[in-house]
Design a protein that fits this description.
Length: 646
């Protein structure tokens, strides 16, 4: 059912009012767990907007629903431009706003009055989190509602007759839409003239000042008469200049979806001194107006005073008779946990991360065959865990352990990235024993993390030190490395004894699963000591542990001398040595994760597969980074050594 566009709201009784959401209309058909999500022109939306489809699958109702799929900004306002560019959950908060119920439990509801359909719809809530009920306002002034919508920077409002029936495919006067055009002053920085045009000019090139610089905000091609254009051309003549006044030169011949072959235009640049007023639909994410129209010149405004205007957040809306309406119209988006970066359908996707375009390919390739986890699953994991893992990777040279065909394919280590990594990737030089100059890769942000993962680097293996102090590790490591003859209960016992040793000398230790067979224990040093000092300290700890558990532990470096015992390894504390980072995936069955633990979790019953690609993010989001103290103040090693001297 479609709404009729009108130029002003009606204040007649018997009407309810809703926000006009700026998105894609969609009908959802739910029956016995089967779900269809279709557009107005019967195109399937299940794949394109997969989070909505997945949420509907979890909603165990039998119904046909009418609503709008939108992408919301932090204030809760829908953005059509953001929706058009949406490819995955990393692109914005996708919401399915429902406003009508057409069928329920085998009954056709289209011939019930709207007010009754709404009441039945409300009873179906709560729904899964990204499905919301579009609030309907009754017993309110349409004028006040429109005014509140204008204050918030919305596209418009919808008015619906409470007694209206649902007529599929018809545009009726029982539903009305009232659009709001936003207005803004802009500075004229030039004009264009299309090839073979008879008009004085074809469009105005305009912008606003930000920090003293003119930022381009769009091209105005409508709203002025020929007479106005001739008058404006007279004002333009003394302002003509050779160079663009904008910070970046506008692409005036850029094709659009509706004009793939625009007429060739030539720009004439003007000194930015004239101001005009423009109406427009919205500002896109890159700061350009959609559907701008010229409203008139503003001789009362100085160009230097024309700056960027932003919509008032809902929490700061002006107090007025519509204030109550204003607060209920929108639900601000609360920044939550990260979701997917890559959608589940496209095998190759290009995403912009930290201003760098990354091409993710072969996304359907299975990396863990037994569990059917794909390269896409791995990349989505690293995108979600990036805020937690990056502190342990940033500015630390990396040894790439690459599995281009998954954990059962051939793998190889890559240390040197000279001439192979993009220019924006940071590197750290090293000199080989054969006299060659090479470079380690150094992650600095999540773009470099995802670049490594895209190469098939399933696990992240950083140095213990950063490039700012390469000879001073940030932590001391005790690596408990069992053999096939050892049980994991023995590893757990060894970790507990290590904790006892650390407690006895009053220093903290933080443990994590290796994600493979062992447990890693970290002691914070804050880069205050050399690798030699760190290793000697680690040796003392390992020796104490071995003395307590001689039956099944060893500190022998040579494998044959360990006799099948758990190796209490302190030799990881050396320059250029690497170990799987906290929160790193491992190329092991089950897609295990090297997971930080609370010490009270290190007990009988702990299993490596307890933490994997499917459940790690939920745990991390709930607990936060419990390993964070490893990067903290660090111990006073000299003070500790004085306490343990005989």
């Amino acid at each position: 059912m479609l709404a009729t566009l009108v130029d002003e709201p009606t204040d007649a009784s018997g009407w309810l009012y809703e926000v006009k959401w700026d998105g894609y209309r969609a009908i959802a058909l739910l029956q016995k767990g089967n779900v269809q999500l279709i557009s107005r022109n019967n195109k399937p939306f299940e794949e394109k907007f997969y989070p909505v489809f997945q949420a509907l699958q979890k909603w165990k109702i039998d119904a046909v629903l009418d609503g709008e799929i939108v992408v919301l900004n932090p204030s809760g306002i829908s953005s059509f431009a953001s929706l058009q560019n949406w490819r995955s959950e990393a692109d914005g908060e996708l919401i399915y706003y429902l406003f009508d119920l057409l069928w329920l439990n085998g009954y056709d509801l289209t011939q019930l009055p709207l007010i009754q359909r709404r009441e039945l719809l409300e009873r179906l809530f709560p729904a899964p989190d990204i499905i919301r009920l579009s609030t309907a306002f009754r017993n309110t002034s349409a004028t006040a509602f429109l005014s509140a919508a204008n204050d918030l920077g919305l596209e418009g409002i919808i008015a619906k007759n409470e007694e209206s029936l649902y007529h599929s495919g018809l545009r009726t006067r029982d539903w009305l839409k009232i659009k709001i055009n936003k207005r803004h002053e802009v500075v004229i920085g030039g004009y264009t003239r299309n090839e073979n045009s008879s008009k004085p000019f074809s469009s105005l090139l305009v912008g606003v000042f930000e920090k003293g610089k003119l930022q381009y905000t769009g091209k105005i091609g409508t709203g002025f008469s020929t007479a106005q254009q001739k008058e404006m051309m007279q004002a333009f003549k003394p302002l003509i200049r050779k160079t663009t006044p904008f910070t970046t030169t506008p692409d005036i011949n850029k094709p659009s979806r509706f004009r793939p072959n625009p007429p060739k235009a030539v720009a004439t640049w003007l000194a930015p001194e004239l101001v005009c007023e423009v109406s427009y639909a919205e500002i896109t994410d890159d700061g350009v107006m959609r559907h701008p129209s010229f409203e008139g010149m503003r001789i009362d405004k100085a160009a230097k005073d024309v700056g960027k205007e932003e919509a008032i957040p809902v929490t700061k809306a002006v107090k007025r008779t519509a204030d109550t309406i204003t607060k209920q119209m929108l639900t601000p988006v609360i920044s939550g946990d990260r979701k997917t970066l890559l959608n589940p359908s496209e095998a190759t996707q290009v995403r912009k991360i930290n201003r760098h375009e990354l091409k993710f390919s072969n996304l359907h390739k299975v990396f863990w065959p037994d569990e059917k986890y794909t390269k896409r699953d791995m990349l989505n994991y690293y995108y979600q865990v990036a805020p937690y893992i990056m502190p342990y990777l940033k500015d630390r040279p990396q040894s790439l352990n690459r599995f281009p065909n998954g954990i059962k394919g051939k793998s190889f280590y890559q240390k040197d990235v000279t001439g192979q990594a993009p220019d924006w990737i940071k590197t750290f030089p090293y000199h080989t024993s054969t006299g060659e100059d090479k470079n380690f890769m150094v992650p600095t942000d999540e773009a470099s993390l995802l670049y490594m993962a895209n190469l098939g680097a399933i696990e992240m293996n950083p140095w213990n030190s950063r490039i700012s102090k390469p000879d001073h590790p940030d932590w001391c490591i005790i690596d408990l490395d069992p053999t096939e003859k050892n049980t994991f209960e023995q590893v757990i016992k060894t970790a507990q004894i290590t904790k006892d040793v650390l407690d006895s000398i009053g220093i903290p230790g933080y443990c994590k699963t290796s994600g493979s067979t062992g447990i890693h224990i970290y002691i914070p040093l804050h880069a205050k000591y050399t690798y030699d000092e760190c290793q000697l300290f680690g040796k003392w700890i390992a020796t104490q542990v071995h003395h307590t558990l001689p039956a099944f532990t060893s500190i022998e470096r040579m494998t044959q001398n360990r006799k099948g015992k758990i190796y209490v390894d302190y030799l990881q504390n050396r320059p250029k040595a690497t170990l799987a980072a906290p929160y790193s995936l491992r190329p092991k069955p089950g897609a295990t994760v090297s997971m930080p633990l609370h010490w009270d979790e290190v007990k009988k019953g702990l299993k490596m597969k307890d933490f994997n690609i499917t459940n790690a993010i939920a745990r991390i989001n709930e607990m936060g980074d419990i390993f964070k103290p490893v990067l903290g103040k660090g111990i006073d090693m000299k003070k500790v050594l004085r306490t343990i001297q005989p």
